[in-house]
Amino acid sequence: MHAEPLYERASTLGDAENWLALGTGALLLLVGASRRSTLGACLAVSSVPLLYRGITGRWPAVTNGDGRADNSRTALAGNAGVHVRESIRLEVPLEQAYRYWRDLQNLPCFMPHLVRVTETADGTSRWVAAGPGGLEVTWDAEIINEVENEVLAWRSLRGADVVSAGSVNFDRVRGGRSTQVSVHLQYAPPAGKAGALVASLFGREPSQTIREDLRRFKQLLEAGERPRATPMP
Amino acid sequence: MRAVCWEGKENIQVETVPDPAILNPRDAIVKVTSTAICGSDLHIYDGYIPTMQKGDVLGHEFMGEVVEVGKGNTRLKIGDRVVVPFTIACGRCYFCKEQLWSLCDNSNPNAWMAEKLYGYSASGLFGYSHMYGGYPGGQAEYARVPFADVGPLKVPDTLTDEQVLFLSDILPTGYMAADNCQIKAGDTVAVWGCGPVGQFAIKSAFLLGADRVIAIDRFAERLALASSQGGAETLNYEDVDVLDALRHMTGGQGPDACIDAVGLEAHGTTLDAWYDRAKTSMFLATDRPHALRQAISACRKGGTVSIPGVYGGWLDKFPLGAAFAKGLTLKMGQTHVHKYMPLLLERIERGEIDPSFIITHRIGLEDAPAMYRTFRDKHDACIKVVMKPGAPSGHRTHSESVSQ
Lengths: 233, 404
Hints:
The complex is a heterodimer.
Chain A: E1 2-3, H1 15-34, H2 38-56, H3 72-75, E2 82-90, H4 94-102, H5 107-110, E3 114-119, E4 124-130, E5 136-147, E6 151-156, E7 164-173, E8 178-187, H6 192-202, H7 206-223
Antiparallel strand pairs in A: 1-2, 2-8, 3-4, 4-5, 5-6, 6-7, 7-8
Chain B: E1 2-8, E2 11-16, E3 28-37, H1 39-45, E4 56-57, E5 61-69, E6 81-84, E7 87-88, H2 94-97, H3 111-118, E8 124-125, E9 142-145, E10 153-154, H4 161-164, H5 170-179, E11 188-192, H6 196-207, E12 212-217, H7 220-228, E13 233-236, H8 242-249, E14 257-260, H9 271-281, H10 290-298, E15 304-307, H11 320-325, E16 329-332, H12 337-349, E17 361-364, H13 368-376, E18 385-388, E19 396-398
């Protein structure tokens, strides 16, 4: 399996930029702290965002994050939101993998946080997930791209509590001998009530959650059953 | 049912636990007629295997009679007499298709644990920690066998339990160890460790065309067996300098292949062996790779070091420089039991090998706790323990074959 969680890193130039920020920040802090003056203090303070950028790999958020947009188009535009990319290889025909996934009501079979997914006649779907405290959380989504045996993409509709979008690509690999399924999932960064919700859905390590989902998908399609050592699932 | 359970380091108890049930369509339930204690169970007994939990049912060498079959399993039927491979494999993933059965992608429900430690997970194993799936083992009256439509091997009634039981693990393990040596006619193979896997590696090396096999151990009864049953030349490492002796015995060239059938709890008399003991006893190291170091040093240029012995963690003072300088090939890993079982059953049926020669102790399940200690301490000339879950407590036979 290939794991590559991307947390808002797509817009950066990677490590070089981090080191540059860290270095500049450290220099400002040193120079600023050594000058016991107002200018020095200003310089030292100005190092904070650079150091933050250098250490965490992202710029500090200026807003408090409560201005959550419920529109997936703006909330997830460009590189906004949290990105998770995971993929897995299977020894089943690509068409079988696509067909199983495309039947959205199969998703809860390998995504245990989902209770059910139902498709409606107008091309939208209703997703029901188990939220915190035993409550059910519901949102609607639409398929925005569908090329049979190649790709399936969806996003949540306006007003959804969980603002998310995602795509699944189906590729023939190893010279056509194996099938690769690649998931790219995006969701709005956690904040407030919805943040707790999202956190409970995707876990503390979203990439691990998706990886386990894909593993279950593979087990069901390849082995025909999920391995269990004890009666509990 | 009664089952042998791990309750902590050096603490084994026979307990009453719930009977296993069919959980998945491809499952089967086997009524265990014979089961054995494996040398690798001793690593669990000694507390070397992480992610064990109190109450875990032990045992991965077992056979018996099919008493229940899942609805998705059309290959087995009730009453079939089967030997169960210790590695659990789905038979359909990339690794199973490539005959790399012990690396099955789909049989470990706790794959994430192994991935954290090793990068990727191997197959699930019976009774061998939660990192390998947490499957209850076969030292019990009954065992649930997942993917039973590809694993268990049906055996003919003309062969006794003792002749076929070791197809579950140690016979294929010894055979794969020799197979990995890429033996050519005229080759000399050195085998460290004359426990059951070492004994079968010796036999297999000859079956695969070796000219000479040199067996290394410190217990007289094990060396005697290697000589009498296996036809090996023997070295007692407490009496001789092994490296020196191997050099002399091979005209200064070294053995063509070296097999480490010892694993992570090696004993030794050299400085590095005491260093390993000190470090592991203070939890500063995970393994004691003394035998492996010696095998690498001893091996001839361009030779193969084959490692059936179990290792678990990070090895200290591993002589990779020597392996590199001499252009060695290192082959290792859990046995692809499914691959070797059918051909080894044929060899047993043809009379080319009778694996029962290693058995020294036959007991009932209730006597397992004491026998784990006896086996670990190599008391009573103990080499291999077979348990009959049906046999009463106190029932015990000591084999004639090794008392010379």
